[in-house]
Amino acid sequence: MRNIRLDICYDGSRYQGWQRLPGANNTIQGKLESALSRILGEMVEISGSGRTDAGVHAKGQVANFHCKSDMPTNEILSQLRRYLPEDIGIISCKEVSERFHARLNAHQKTYEYRLWYSDSPCVFERKFVAQAAGNLDMKAMRMAADLLEGTHDFSAFCANRHFKKSTVRTIMRLEILQTDNEVRFRVTGNGFLHNMVRILVGTLIEVGRGERSAESIPSLFGEKREKAGFLAPAKGLCLEEVVY
Fold first, then answer.
1. pTM of the model
2. pLDDT value for 135
């Protein structure tokens, strides 16, 4: 069996997320598996580096699959680009070691969340940014971001109430970048819980609005979901990079 790696980008606006699930007939994984099975003439199952939520985008998603076909990878790439919809793009396709697994071998991931911080309309980027209302205290948000870095129990930042595995994760870097009209939250970690980045952003926005203090952040570690901030809208989030 061959092991093939795909580097993928997609606009997640109209999809029900990455993962193929019962009753979810419009997923990124489903579209890829359907196209690959048609191209290779065999049933194909793919594994992604992570399960992005409905409406979340990706510039650097990675997946792998096994197949018996001897079709060259450049031909697989060409056929995928032919059959996939225009909002799912294949950046590269290459054969890799049998031991490579897109999720299990990932060392770190970087996500970026975009917040439109202006009263002026955002017509052309509207599918990729969330709107912000009111003033935000950038200094307080950056102070809170610094306190979120490191290895902590992020149970309060996990939307899955029945998650049975460890909720300890490491955030290597959490930057907040501001331009005239936009605030970008860029977070790199060794792994992320369900909805974790969106809850991190919601919590930081609440700090920026003065609804909670930056100094209160450490008290959230190991707590229940209700203690942390709101779930920021999906459309502002993008998986930027996966490092192996």
1. 0.95
2. 87
The answer to whether the Cα torsion of 18, 22, 23, 26 is positive or negative is positive
Instruction: Label residue 57 by pLDDT band (50, 70, 90).
Output: very high
| Residues designated catalytic | 53
Two structure tokens written together for 153: 């129990």
Residues 6+ apart with CB under 8 A from 84: 31, 32, 35, 90
- Give me the residues paired with residue 116 across strands: 131, 182
Q: Rounded CA gap, 138 and 148, in Å?
A: 15
Residue pLDDT, tens place only, 109-165? 999 999 998 888 889 999 999 998 778 999 999 999 999 999 999 999 999 877 778
Q: Following CA atoms 7, 9, 12, 13 in sequence, which dihedral angle do they give, to the nearest 10 degrees?
A: -170
Compute how many other C-beta atoms are within 10 angstroms of the C-beta atom of residue 209: 17
Query: Distance of alpha carbon 162 from its chain centroid, rounded?
Result: 21
